[in-house]
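Submission sheet (multi-component)
Chains listed below:
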Amino acid sequence: MHSTIESIRNNFRSDLINVNNHQDLEVIRVKYLGRQGILADLMTQLKDLSADDKKTFGPACNQLKAEFQELHQQTQALLFAREQELIARKAAAFDVTISKPLQQGSLHPYTYITQEIEDIFMSMGFAVADGPELETDYNNFGALNIPADHPARAESDTFWLPDMQRLLRTHTSTVQIKTMREQTPPIAIICPGRALRNEATDASHDFMFMQIEGMLIDKNISIANLLAVLKEFLDKLFGKSLQLRVRPGFFPFVEPGLEIDAQCPFCTTGCSTCKHTCWIELLGAGLIHPNVLRNAGIDPTIYSGFAFGSGLTRLAMLKYHITDIRLIHSGKIEFLEQF
Ligand code: DAH
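Outcome: structure written.
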């Protein structure tokens, strides 16, 4: 028994010499001091000894255990001190004066153009309104005087939810309705935001795009007010005085409805952007249909208003000469870096 104890002691000490880290130490603790370890085994052997031997070896085993525990603790403290020293040495080697070139991010073209458009309209007294992208059939169509048999309601254009009552808004005109319900005239708002349509993607179409909606309601609002606001907007956005051209257009939520073209900001004699016509189709607009005002709780015998809608994606593509809509939504760093 005596020699067994001695050889365990020697083994433990030589194992300890090879310890490099806390994991190594834990392996050794389990091997010797664990519940099924070498010392536990030794203790069970004591049972089979004579009473005299028990008296000698019992205390010797206890002594061995206490010695191991002490050595284990000392080694642990040593490892900890070594770790701290390493951390301190690393911290001392950290050079706060080293400067590495930073990779600079940039804003998305949508963000730039939205900020610019908001600034232009705010300078004319418009507020920026917001609305949900998940809408009801009524807010997207019915309240805007779009009858049940209008092609825009066909499933092919609209992302419906399975209940066929809710949808992803197909235009930002929904915000007209929300704002009319929440505010009393005079109201002047714009709403830049996302619109979604279930259509195939190509260089100029995507199922998700940005629109901007505008609306002004007060007493005696006319087409002249609409044109003055739109001219100011487009002149500022493209940085030059542009002629506008007004054509009749049909949108169920306005009467009369207009299509508004601007003189091409990039040429005087025709270019690829304006398809050599010198005009660019930019907006749908008109005087808000009395049914729409009524649907949203505004009396059309007292108030009138104008509304307009334009593709913000299209405006961004024109302004920044982007030829493929898919680039805008690609998240490609080489594309974004240019802004
Ligand atoms: N909502 C129309 C669309 O998505 C755009 C539009 C046309 C908005 C005429 C208007 C408007 O407010 O008066 O194509």
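Remark: The chain has twelve helices and nine strands.
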